[in-house]
Specification:
The protein is α+β, with helices and mostly antiparallel strands. The chain is 22% helix and 33% strand. The chain is built from 13 helices and 27 strands. The strands form five sheets. Strands 1-2-3-6-5-4 form a six-stranded antiparallel beta barrel. A six-stranded antiparallel β-barrel has the order 8-9-10-13-12-11. Strand 8 and strand 9 form a beta hairpin. The protein is elongated and about 80 Å long.
């Protein structure tokens, strides 16, 4: 269909349509797209609100140093001039020789150690910062935004979480309000205040890039793109409601400066630590004495776990709560006190936050079934050095491999009673040779096989029975131990 309209009539027609559309638009409610329009945030009121609670922290360390002119090189030079010229080193005063049996005592010199940030926890002078800010400091100086300066006492510092609490002798201070990290959303605007490179009261802003970022055993970090640099450490990460949601702690950098990625300690984790520091000066954590690793997708499917979840137990410390509870190498811990273990790092956090002496429940997946074990959590202690692998007692002839073992590329033998006792195993078979598909799976001579296809093996006879039942056309799961570590691998069919 074709319309023929003269020039003036066409202009009038278009103008009338535009008027009609504008009138209709004015009468309609705001659309969803218009409702989503956002303006950039204004941080000015937020800075006025929280700025007075952010402090600058300077640390000083004492360095032992001899008095001027008394260094070893100076003494040698002075002795040279005395012996050959009959006078001391030019420009140096004559030194009174030290009294017999009275060696000169080294003098201590105060030197600046570093600059960091912190924020006021309570009106009575408790201040939170990073542990690395006050580490090895002989003196801590806290400067408030109103330029008042105080010597601070270190109440406690926890290196594992990088949280520290110091105390200044002041009252009526403006404490910050703590936020709810569980309500923090990725993409949300946040702000940091601190002293990067010693530049006090510096404000930077950005968004939350990720939550639950794993960079440490005990800390699910908040990742942001807020500019953080040396000196920002210990300062607060603030949400738009003026609440602290994190402590700025780390950056990812190849240059030493900010590169767009920074990490903050979630404030709920930090408060939990600070409460213990204020009460006892130290942090008490739980432990169960197991070494863990991740569960891969292929292994999870092959053993019937379904999806890759939980923490694979690679070894159990002798005499530990885990051993007493019946945890075995190769178990997959899927829950702790009913809380799901989605990834390995979840377990040390949950156990670490449990009070030592507490009776807890471990849910483990073993040989295709789940079972609950009762464990009494102990207090964490310094890591023990790993024990060395068991040496062979004497050369023994390698046994001939059965047809079932050959199909997996393995030759195995029974463990001696002495070997079982040494590596604390009830059973298993030792690999004498691993070839073809077994070698490609990473198995090697000396490894101890504990289970094949979810069937536990205590000796060669049980191994051959389990191997003969395995479907060789599909990947076969093998639980094995190497030294102190147990892990799964998949022996895939030859192509």
């Amino acid at each position: 269909m074709t319309f023929q309209v003269e020039g003036k009539r066409l202009q009038s027609y278009v103008f009338a349509c535009a008027l009609a559309l504008s009138a209709v638009g004015a009468a309609l409610p705001t659309t969803a797209a218009q409702a989503q329009i956002r303006t950039l945030p204004d941080f000015t009121d937020l800075v006025d609100q929280v700025g007075p609670s952010v402090v600058n922290i300077r640390t000083v360390e004492k360095v032992a140093q001899r008095g001027a002119g008394n260094g070893e090189m100076d003494e040698e030079m002075q002795e040279f001039f005395r012996r050959f010229f009959g006078q001391p080193l030019p420009g140096q005063p004559r030194q009174t020789p030290p009294r017999p049996n009275r060696p000169q005592e080294p003098q201590e010199e105060s030197r600046p150690r570093g600059v960091g940030s912190g924020f006021i926890l309570s009106p009575d002078g408790f201040v939170m910062t990073n542990a690395h800010v006050v580490e090895d400091a002989s003196e801590v100086l806290v400067t408030l935004p109103d330029k008042r300066e105080f010597k601070a006492k270190i109440i406690g510092a926890d290196k594992r979480t990088d949280v520290a609490v110091v105390k200044i002798d002041a009252t009526g201070l403006p404490a910050l309000k703590m936020g709810d990290v569980s309500k923090l959303r990725v993409g949300e605007w946040v702000m940091a205040i601190g002293s990067p490179f010693g530049l006090e009261n510096t404000v930077t802003a950005g968004i939350v890039s990720a939550k639950q970022r794993d960079t440490g055993d005990y800390l699910p970090f908040i990742q942001t793109d807020v500019a953080i640099n040396p000196g920002n450490s210990g300062g607060p990460l603030i949400n738009m409601r003026g609440e602290v949601v994190g402590i700025n702690s780390q950056i990812y950098s190849r240059s030493g400066g900010f590169m767009g990625i920074s990490f903050s300690i979630p404030i709920d984790e930090a408060i939990r630590v600070s409460e213990q520091l204020r009460a006892t000066g130290r942090v008490s954590r739980g432990r169960i004495g197991v070494s863990i690793d991740q569960v891969t997708k292929d292994v999870a499917e092959s053993i019937g776990l379904g999806k890759p979840q939980g923490a694979l137990v690679r070894s159990v410390e002798a005499g530990s709560p885990g051993e007493k509870a019946g945890v075995e190498a190769g178990d997959i811990i899927t829950k702790f006190d009913g809380k799901a273990i989605e990834k390995p790092s979840d377990l040390p956090r949950l156990v670490g936050n449990t009070k030592p002496g507490t009776k807890s429940t471990l849910t483990v997946f073993r040989r295709g079934n789940s079972r609950d074990l009762s464990v009494t959590v102990a207090e964490i202690e310094p890591d023990k050095p790993a024990r060395t692998a068991v040496e062979r007692e004497e050369p023994t002839p390698k046994p001939a491999a059965s047809a079932a073992a050959k199909s997996l590329g393995l030759a195995v033998s029974d463990l001696t009673e002495a070997q079982k006792k040494e590596i604390k195993l009830r059973g298993g078979v030792k690999i004498e040779a691993a070839t073809e598909n077994a070698a490609r799976a990473g198995l090697k001579e000396g490894d101890v096989i504990l289970a094949v296809g979810n069937i536990e093996v205590a000796n060669v006879k049980e191994f051959e029975a389990a191997a003969s039942k395995a479907d060789k056309s599909k990947p076969v799961s093998v639980l094995f131990r190497r030294g102190e570590w147990a892990q799964y691998t998949l022996i895939r069919p030859a192509r």
